[in-house]
Amino acid sequence: MSVDTTYAPSMLVEEFTGAAPGGLDAAYARLVGALWSPGTAEDRTLWDGGTLTERAPSAIPELIDALDGLDEARAGRLLILLGLIAEAGQTEAVRAGLDRYLALAEHATPALGQALAYLLAHFPHDRGRVLGVAGRLGLDSGDRSRLDRCLTLMDERRTGLGRVWPAPEIWRLTDAERAFDEAWIGALTQEQAEVNWRNDSRTVWGYMGLKAYWSVRRGPVVAVPGPQAPPQEDATGDDPRLGLFGRHLSALVCPSCRGPLDIGGAAVRCPACAVAYPASRGILDLTQAVRDDADEATAGLLKSLAEMPSMGLYYEALLRPEYLRVAGGNWGGAVTLADEDAYIARSVRPVDGPVLDLGAGAGRWTAVVAAAVGADRLLALDLGLPMLNVLRRRVPDVPAVRASALDIPLADASMGAVVCWNALQAFPDEAATAIAEVGRVLRPGGTFTLMTFVWDEDPVCRHFQAAHYFPSRPAGTLLFERAELERWLADAGMVVVESSGPESFVFVTARRVS
């Protein structure tokens, strides 16, 4: 956005505070653009708090003074801007207004309380004073745990490192999990630990900032329930259920040589490579090729499945709904489970031939696809064994393959449809490769049904989206642009027949051309 550099900070602040309701967003965008800008996806070094303009330092006192007497829509936006400026390196200058921020907490509305919590989370050296007013901010328990974490300095044991998203309070660790944390955290250098701690802080700031920004602009956050847990099953038994793969054997290929596979004994074999791939209870692991002892490999797979009964459930119940808020802007509940189910069923039901659920995860949407086309036509694929372990409970009649979406172990033009639901962003740097693989395995006329997320057009939202660091993405969140998704689909031989989605969601159906 172009901003007139002749404007003094005070003039920009006055324009914003005096703006009519219909012009408030535009005036705020001009004010923000005059003082701060986010980084770019091409240069991750700029994401750390964004970049301040030359006028930002002199504007800080103006912003603080302007808080008095404003309504929540204006005061909340200014508090968020002050938080952004603090993140970008002017923490001490912003901290000068602490007394005024704490005074605002005395009569804070829920939206203003969210904005105050985001700003106050940048002042760990004032922990006592901030927590003294936290009870007046109208925060839920998750918000309180986020605020508490940001006001905590890293101790010698680096307590809680890596366990902050979506809220520190949800991480109730077992003894084994605590031992695991102690091992990897203890192996970090001090510099590595500090980088990870900083990234954890940015992740929490990003969540709090997004929630506050929504609240001051759009109203209260709407809770959208996550999927219900699938039924539990007996973890004993070692039936590989190889019969499930028989109907897809003509399509499955060896990941190493791309040759055909055979079923033999308790494993699936590649005659050309003279290797076997272990299978257990309807899960075929094509990441483990064994030349001699297939039984031992199968026993290892069975043991791994028995040791991870709940990780996929944890993702579905707690992490996915929050991720849809962060990546998709689903704070207002614009997308529900019923919306997702209906789009999938509508897109895949007319398709003929086998169907691949790519990045199937824990199987919630695999079940939707199975209901639409029949379990006998469906094959699920995911690289995460914990997810597949839950999927096999939810859809026991759907065969599951452990393999990479970047090298799909299927023959060319073997699938009538592919569904990739809420998974493409899990490998953003290789998304074009995954889409090219989809184009390869689709038959002419076959369809690709996709749901993922794009960057928000608002630079403030975009900054908060990018601030999230997950264990699988140490470089931070990377989402997509609509134009690049369309280009990758075209390069893979597909044409878009439908594209929609509220907020930052993208729902796409594409068809493979002949």
TrEMBL record:
InterPro entries given in the database record: Methyltransf_25, SAM-dependent_MTases_sf, Trm112-like
Residue intervals passing through the bilayer: none
Taxonomic superkingdom: Bacteria
Occurrences of domain Methyltransferase (ranges): 355-446
Name of the protein: Methyltransferase domain-containing protein
